[in-house]
Amino acid sequence: MEMIKELLIQLFEILIYPGLLFLFVAALLADWIDRKLYARMQNRQGPPWYQPLADFVKLISKETIIPKHAVGKHLFRVLPYLAISAVVVCIFFIPISGSLALMSFQGDLIAAAYLLSIPTMCFFLIGWTSSSPYSAVGAMRVLTQFFAYEVPMILVLIGPAIVAGSWRIEDIAYYYSANPSMMFVNILGFIVALITMQGKLERVPFDIPHAETEIVGGVFTEYSGKLYGFIKLAISIEMIVVAALFNAVFMGGSLGLEGFLGFLLFCFKVLIIILISAIIRSAMARVRIEQMINFCWRVLVPIAMLQLIISIIARAFHG
Amino acid sequence: MPKITVPLGPQHPALKEPGNFMLLLEGEEIVDATLRLGYNHRGIEKAAEARNFVQATYLIERVCGICSHSHATCYVTNVENIAGLEIPQRAKAIRVVIGELERIHSHLLWLGVAAHEIGFDTLFMYSWRDREYVMDALEALSGNRVHYSMNTIGGVRRDISKEAHEDILKKLDILEERTNYYIHLATQEPTLHARTKGVGALPKEEAIRRDACGPLLRASGVARDVRKDDPYLIYDQLDFKVITSDACDVFGRLYVRVFEILESIKILRQVLSNLPEGPFAVKTPFKIPAGESVTRYEAPRGEDIHYVKADGGPNPARVKVRAPTLANFESVSYMLTGDQLADAPLIIAAIDPCFSCTDRATIVASGKQSVQSLKDLRTYGIEFYKKKGIDFTKVK
After folding, report:
1. Domain with A163 in it
2. Which residues of A touch B343 (CB under 8 A)?
């Protein structure tokens, strides 16, 4: 009896909250809020709330066309699901409504960062298997961009871990909930993280891998129907997961609140991150790939290094 | 790194009309660009010969959807020259008003398209929203938003009413404020600078050698503008500057176009403040005598040239249209080579191309009575340009 109950709880956690269903709803909502904010900033009306859901339903009901020249037809089919499962697994390490995550072990910060890089790798492979000139250029750009933003992003994620003295996301969130003033130590790192998030989610000014006016759909040019729907969903879920990770690492997680209040706080903070992302997106033009690399390595990496030094000093004084 | 050929067009999100650019890439750098046109040939010149002079006015207006007034004015002036008509001052002023409003509308449209090419969609939405003011003004004047149909042989078809007059002046104030905002934006926004400065370089000598025209030429530092050099209508009585830039890149083209909006507003205020009194059209003559005429007109995209030949019959014997885009195409492959793939759409957009205006096919060699085949013409054209030091062997 006990075992069945445990099993049911686990199933609930994986399938409903904070697993698949929650992520699905949250991703669609986040997508809508982002599009609506972006539209209002551009003086447009914007889509109704059910638009992302309608888009998703439309895409999955369409025929999937696999190009004749695709190099790995099985790979072509499997990669979108691989991308989506990697980001869904990632949410299990991150505390959402309370102070506890579903799974937690020492070093899960690194595991989360690793899981978040799997979609990017999938997108590269997607472009490579499609064997279309646009996808090929897009795939090159995905990989080049990955090396540009990933380093500063990982560097700034290390900062809070040093201050909190743990590699567990749960512990980091707990530490900042207990010492909220220490959050200001990582303010530089948080800014860098928000900028690199634009690269991770491939949004303006770093939407270079699928710059529509240059390379049509980029890596996703050959994708259609269900598979494309899942790619879109994976990107939306990734936005939620990245926002949740930043919330836990930089913004102190639930700040000691539990249950429904904690959940509300989580939603509020994710909304703030989406808002900042939408502002960046609407205020800028797309940069070129080499400009992005220059910016990431010459500006963001030194700032991230400085942040590391600040974190180490703060740890020495506080810890 | 292996070289990849990436096709840009004929169907491509960056192009609003069909045209094809085969870009040979080495990594992200364009090593070679081949141009292919002719996807949108509509046979307008031939169709004009099958209509009478008045009907052809409305056909010629449809050469272009953006500079419709430019083409129509250019054609109508030709017919008036052949018929020896002197059109009233008020008609000339009204043609200038529509022409300058059209220039503002075209430049704002271009600003939006160029912003979209570099992924700056907010600027795209803003400039197209502000463009609505000009569209509304044009609609108030002519009743139409795109094809104004204001021209007729001997003048214009509608007068400017008192209310429309005040309404336009009010809209011009808003537009001036918005244009100043765009100037501020263009000089302040770092990503816009990063994407436009040093992109698509076209030095002054190269621009002259390749017969560039319009804002493209003026952005390469050559002050050439038909309105100043060979004034038509009432431009010789107006006070305005020819905007040039020595930047020789996309930023220069942006600069020239945005400041030209301000100049157009200045011109419009001058014309509207002392609009000549009197009739706005003279009677269209029943018969156009035999004769021929060539007119130049400064369209928003550059110099527009029309040729009309009349043989005394009811229809024009020959109408020839040289749209400004054709003159600017020669510079595109030069500007593309050596730049990044990411800049290709912007470089193409920076000449403000209009593919369907450009596509013409029938050419009869002068002096010879026979019609030349396309192959002979091609060889002739390539030889002609080789003498000027430009190789078009690869253009198909």
Report:
1. 65-318
2. 288
Q: Does residue A46 fall inside a structural domain?
A: no
Q: Check: CB of residue B18 under 8 Å from CB of residue B9.
A: yes
* Alpha carbon distance B344, B279 (integer Å): 49
pLDDT grade for A57, boundaries at 50, 70 and 90: very high
**How many other CB atoms are found less than 10 A from the CB of residue B372?**
14
Task: Compare CB distances from B345 to A140, A213, A283 and report the shortest one's residue.
Answer: A213
Strand partners for B33: B23
User: Where does the pLDDT of residue B369 fall: very low under 50, low under 70, confident under 90, or very high at 90 and above?
Assistant: low
What is the rounded CA–CA span in Å between residue B359 and residue A246? 55
Domain boundaries B44-322, corresponding CATH code: 1.10.645.10
Residue showing tokens 């050469």: B63
Q: Is A270 left (phi over 0), alpha (psi -120 to 50) or beta?
A: alpha
Q: What is the mean pLDDT of residues A294-314?
A: 90
ipTM value for the complex? 0.82
CB B163 within 8 A of CB B98: no
Strand B20-26 and strand B3-8: the pairing is: antiparallel
Residue A253 placed within a domain: yes
Residue B220, helix vs strand vs coil: coil
Does any CB of chain B come closer than 8 Å to the CB of residue A143? no
CB count in 10 Å sphere of residue A23: 23
**CA distances in angstroms from A133 to A136, A140, A218, B379, listed in the order given:** 5, 11, 9, 32
From B4, B191, B344, residue closest to A214, measured CB to CB: B344
pLDDT of B364 over the 50 cut: no
- How many domains does the structure of chain A reveal? 1
Note whether B226 and B214 are within 8 A (CB): no
Q: Are B195 and A42 within 8 A, CB to CB?
A: no
Query: What is the Cα–Cα distance from B394 to B396, expressed in whole angstroms?
Result: 6
- Chain A, 45-104: which have a CB under 8 Å from a chain B CB? none
Q: Is residue A7 part of a domain?
A: no
Taking the domains of chain B in order of start, what are their residue ranges? 44-322, 365-396
A19-to-A8, A12, A88, B303 alpha-carbon distances in Å: 13, 8, 7, 63
- B302 and B217 Cβ atoms separated by less than 8 Å: yes
Contact A133 B5 (CB under 8 A): yes
Chain A residues within an 8 Å CB radius of B119: 204-205, 207, 211, 213, 285-286
Contact B160, B141 (CB under 8 A): yes
Which pLDDT band holds residue A255 (cuts at 50, 70, 90)? confident
Q: Does A48 fall in a domain?
A: no
